[in-house]
Amino acid sequence: MSKQRLQGKVAIVTGGATGIGAEAVRIFVENGASVVIADIKDELGHSLATSFGSEKVSYRHCDVRDENEVEETVAFTVEKYSSLDILFSNAGIAGPYSSLLDLDLNEFDNTMAINVRGVAATIKHAARVMVAKKIRGSIICTASVASSVGGSAGHEYTVSKHGVLGLVRSACGEFGAYGIRVNSVSPYALASPLTCDALDWGPAEVDAAQHGSANLEGITLKANHIAEAALFLASDESLYISGHNLVVDGGFTAVNRWLPRIQK
């Protein structure tokens, strides 16, 4: 398959300095896109941008909780690259793992501010450009298997990812009239920096936990698998797909995972 599936397109990837976001940046660039990496991890973001040795990749500090920074990042992108075809709204945090009986509402508010309000802000300002310039763009948001089932993550994170899925479906309904597609990609657990930091586990421990509860045997989910799914949703290969939650979980949310083990 040709590695120019995004030739001539311009993308913003929030949370693009590490993990899924960084893999998406690499894959988007390999496929011909110009990319703005938006993150608060300045050293890592600048390092990733300069590693490509190309003017086609830039870094921009952006805390998605701050709408002004989001708006400025979108304006920077359009000024530098003259367009905005793709938004991958990927920035997020896992939030604490605790009983609902001990819920810290300040932590809850922060998780909502990043995972939901931040996604709404990025969609708002990216879509404004797409509508004004009549760009038939693609907006992709990182949700989670926690947007489909409860009990697979902390309460704050689960609520926030249900919110992301609601935003995707609502935005799909509005922006379809402009030819703009809005979708989400929902990963199963993987050893990303976000997951490792939230659990205070190493990658090997996360991988072991993933295998212990996974449905699809013989494969370890990695960040590049999610980035490849985002590439599909960003490319013209998904031209008539909108409002879809592309779940990348090896069937975890589709089956009763305990039944096959009983049958064995």
From TrEMBL:
Domain of life: Eukaryota
Pfam families per the UniProt record, alphabetical: adh_short_C2 (PF13561)
InterPro entries named in the record: NAD(P)-bd_dom_sf, Sc_DH/Rdtase_CS, SDR_fam
Family matches, as PANTHER family: OXIDOREDUCTASE-RELATED, SHORT-CHAIN DEHYDROGENASE REDUCTASE
Family: Belongs to the short-chain dehydrogenases/reductases (SDR) family.
Protein name, UniProt field: Short-chain dehydrogenase reductase 3b-like
Source organism per UniProt: Vigna angularis var. angularis
Gene: Vigan.04G384700
